[in-house]
Write a structure and sequence with these properties.
single chain; 273 residues; alpha+beta; 3 domains; 3-stranded antiparallel beta sheet; 3-stranded mixed beta sheet; 37% helix; elongated
């Protein structure tokens, strides 16, 4: 191997580390031809878990490395949000059985097709842009927590030593979850989670409510917060928050919340954890 090719290989292996994935698109953009990638595979430097995707031989295929590869390597503005973000933040015991292993991704662009083909225990679910009107942000490794917090996002490590990922904060994840509620079972889940949301930050809640496009998500979020009498709710600024007009029949035959005009199941108390 020439010194030039050895140098390119060393740079690539350093870029990959133990958990990073790279796509054929990334390789081409960085000056690695398809034939060179094939040579690295045949020589035992790289392996290909699915067609068009590569990782270091002996590397660990983990969902955290996959998400970081999408966010910072592939440049996809996808963040971990909603149900799975709440699981990462320590609320997995409130979630429906089996759902904590589904990684919920949000963003303006669909993830690449190879994502669902990876041989992982977890599966990925793409839920689109979500309920917010924030402009897309190009994620970068040097992004500050302050920049992310302006959209209700933050860096998070699933475990010590794992890759840092961009995830929803509790405030944003709860609104994303409320947006996905479509039946009584999901209301019970959202209610149990809201009961645990004792430390939400009122200014951040107010910011996210102003940028949330889903009337249902905002009304349900506020109705559940009021139901649990959270101390942060009276301090949440609601100026400029559009709650729409008229009633919202979220649950047929439910009880209409007098303030937020959305129906909730009559037996909510019976389902609290």
């Amino acid at each position: 191997m020439s010194d030039q090719n050895a140098g390119k290989l060393n740079l690539l292996l350093a870029e990959l580390g133990d958990t990073r994935l790279i796509s054929s698109r990334w390789l081409r953009a960085h000056g690695y031809s398809s034939s060179l990638a094939a040579r690295y595979v045949s020589s035992g430097w790289l392996v290909s878990p699915v067609r068009g995707v590569y990782m270091r031989k002996g590397g660990r295929l983990q969902w955290e490395g996959v998400v970081r590869s999408l966010q910072l390597g592939e440049g996809k503005p996808l963040h971990v949000g909603g149900r799975f973000a709440l699981s990462l933040l320590g609320h997995e015991h409130y979630l429906r059985l089996g759902e904590a292993g589904t990684i919920t991704l949000y963003g303006p662009q669909r993830p690449p097709g190879w994502l669902r083909k990876l041989p992982l225990e977890q599966r990925f679910e793409f839920l689109g842009r979500g309920p917010f009107d924030f402009p897309p942000v190009a994620f970068a490794a040097e992004m500050s927590a302050k920049t992310l917090s302006e959209q209700g996002l933050d860096w998070h490590r699933a475990a010590p030593g794992n890759d840092a990922l961009i995830c929803s904060t509790s405030e944003r994840a709860m609104l994303e979850l409320c947006d996905s509620v479509a039946d009584a079972t999901l209301v019970y889940e959202a209610d149990a989670l809201m009961q645990a949301m004792t430390t939400l930050r009122p200014q951040r809640v107010g910011l996210l409510l102003r940028h949330c496009r889903s009337i249902k998500a905002k009304r349900l979020f506020l109705a559940l917060a009021e139901r649990h009498r959270h101390a942060w709710l009276p301090h949440t600024p609601l100026d400029g928050v559009d709650l729409g007009r008229g009633k919202r029949a979220l649950v047929p035959g439910g009880r209409l919340h007098p303030t937020y005009q959305i129906t909730l199941p009559r037996d909510l108390d019976e389902h609290l954890v």
